[in-house]
Amino acid sequence: MIYLLPISEQGFEIYLKEAIISYAEEKVKAGNWIRENSLDKAAAEYGRLLPEGKSTKNNYLYEIKKEEKTIGFVWLALKTPQRGFIYDIKIFPAHQRNGFGKETLILIEEQCSKLGIEKIGLQVFPHNKRAIALYNKHGYEVTNMKMEKEIQKNNQS
Question: Annotated Gene Ontology MF terms (predicted)?
Answer without folding.
Answer: acyltransferase activity, transferring groups other than amino-acyl groups
